[in-house]
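This section describes the prediction task in plain terms. A model, or a person checking by hand, is given the sequence of a single protein chain and must write out its three-dimensional structure as a string of tokens. No templates, partner chains or ligands are provided. The sample shown here is typical of the held-out split.
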Amino acid sequence: MNGRPNREFDVIVVGAGILGVFHAYFAAKNGLRVLLLERDDAPRGASVRNFGWCIPSAMAPGEWAERGIASLEVYRELAAAVGFPFSQNGTLYVASTELEEAVIREFAESNSHHGLHREFLDARRTREMNPFVRPDYGRASLYFPDEIRIEPRTILGDLLTWLGREFDCEYRPRTVACQAEVREGQCRVMSSDGMVFTANHVFVCSGADVRTLFPEVLAAAGLRRCQLQMFRTVPQQGWKLPTNLASGLSIRRYPSFQDCPSWAKLSQQAAEPGYDERGIHVLLVQDFEGRLVVGDSHIYSCDDMDDMLDAETESLILRYAQQMVDGVDWRIERRWQGVYTLLEDREIFETTIDSRIHLVTGIGGKGMTTAPAVARESIERHLAIR
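The expected answer:
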């Protein structure tokens, strides 16, 4: 890699998705000169194509639940400082079967997710908490009042603007980092337009892009892609969803419930045809303009994903959502898919090349919930910041 550096930094972050932006934030917060590179006009990946839900109750017990709880506090602090939209409606897991009810009751009585408040609600109190839950669906529920929602379509832009104003953090969209190396104890990053940047450390948070930087390393790690499918309705007129909603399918899917004695039996029960094959579990939130955001599905592949939306997947999600809640105008305003990467044998992919280039990716569907805490740990560990 030749060429004179265009500017020197302490830290370069490649990728302005949720992991990359929080790496840039915690580096800049510690007084470092930061460069954040994004290949597109703006972040377009799964970081902006999700529910915007910080949901520690869905995380596996232990370090990932703790990261989710720690991330809640980061979001609260930044909402006050940056001024991005923020709501604390909590999460209501609604059980529709006897086994689902048994699992959430066991979770409510367990010591799992210490520090995260929860409350078991019978059918009557479930309807009082959220009257849109259908009486013939909601046998019982488990309520987590501390969980939050932010707007994924705008939070990254809000944070990027604020970072550039408050810290020594330069953001360069439309800049494809095509090569990174360590030479004579210094990192050098070259962009596709011939720019060269240097830094003491580089963090590569490349999301679903596994072929531009260090493709051989990412291929050897066994990263897979997961495609999700979602939609949002037209604005609902005259009412607001009191809580974010997670379905009985979510109780079956989320690792947080797997230590409950009844979960093994629940997980062996087949869902209706089409749901297991598409990895569907149904979640509902309401955005700040009154639209319901509904999803999602999970299709896995080691190869490129078909970017076409599947009508049957949408139909299955919609049908289940209609069984779960009523009083909704179900006209659909927008449909989309998103892709993230994950590993089969680990919860995240982290490795360091030549002691200064750090790859942090493959976080799966946990990005919005845990990225703040993961990024803070990463910056503190690699830069020896305390």
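For orientation: Residues 225 and 341 are 4 Å apart (CA to CA).
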